[in-house]
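Quick one: structure tokens for this chain, please?
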Amino acid sequence: MLKRRNQIIFITLAVFEIFLPSILAGLCFVDDVQMFKGLLQMHDWNLKNVFTPGGLYYRPLLSLSFIMDKEFWLLNERVMHLENVFLHLFNVVLVYYLTLTLLPDHEKEESVLPLTAALCFGLHPINTEAVNWISGRADLMACTFVLLSTLYLVKFKKGNKKRFLVVSSLSLLLAVLSKEVAVALIPAVFLILIAYDRDNLTAEYDTDKTKHKLLPTFCLVLTILTVLLLTYFLFRSHFFSSDASSLRKTINKITTGPIQALFICLRAFGFYMKKIYIPFPLDFTIKEVDPLYELLALPFLLLCLLVAFKRTLLTALFTAGILLITPSLLIAFGNIAWMPYAERYLYVSSAFIIIPSAFYIRNKLEHFRSRTLIKAGVSAILIIMSVVTLDRNIYWKKTTACYKDVKWIVEK
């Protein structure tokens, strides 16, 4: 078996090889072209303007990253694509270390589960859109800070070191400043804190000791999160002017037709859950989905409820993945974003669903005699994912080939 360091090298090479066409791609006609025009026409900027914008979205860290792209390499699209691939690779490595942290001590040396989970996330076809689309960096950045927040929260739970909690809280704030959907992780923070530290993941769980520490920990976490998020929302409400008509329309749809709104949410939820496990067919523009997904959502909802009540670290992570899907259900009403359904909406949540799914499948196959057959099956799945993702990246490169010259875009 490869050593941990060599596994990271293997992951790096695999991700870069599969996403090489993305680095060589041009601009997406949907959004990147307009964004480049706006950046090229912006001559003066300061941090106040970055953190006090107008419009519907409030993503100052994302905006700052694009401004830095202009200042350092004049919006070279290949460099910006490379940044997205680097962010994706970093997220893959974070999935690796989060999975490794969840393993019991006696498995940390030999288990290939971190490698498997990381490759499943890194090569999953559902994540190609977020990586290939330059504007999709919002999902990549949010995922980076959400994974960091979760990793250090798990480390805090295992070691009870307050500095881990501080890093986790600050990372969550940075995630929210990258993309608003990161707010959905907050309920999962408390689920992780109350989770039983067992499920074949750690040493013997000391119930009395944990209950004794739970209340002050809860109070500390609640205080830190409250201060950080109040600062965020007060800052945003005071300085940020937003055209809330799209949000108002969505709320009106929900309040005037709650039954219909419920079915819209069920349809979207069933669609996204199916996409994580069976991503085909892949499509950049998804305006409508089959109403039969409403029926598919019901067993998934039942599964989520059963999982949530188990109160282990793995089930808390799975629930976090489900919670991170919920903001996309509002987009399905068709008023907030230009595309009501999109594969990139699953980028952050897929990391949290893949990890516990990998543990669950591993546990189910523990007593299966043919280890060679298991390895062959996992390898076959990863090869299929790699081929599909590579094909998807090549397709993206071909469709953006006509947007390589930024000067041509400005002139047009």
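Residues 23 and 256 are 46 Å apart (CA to CA).
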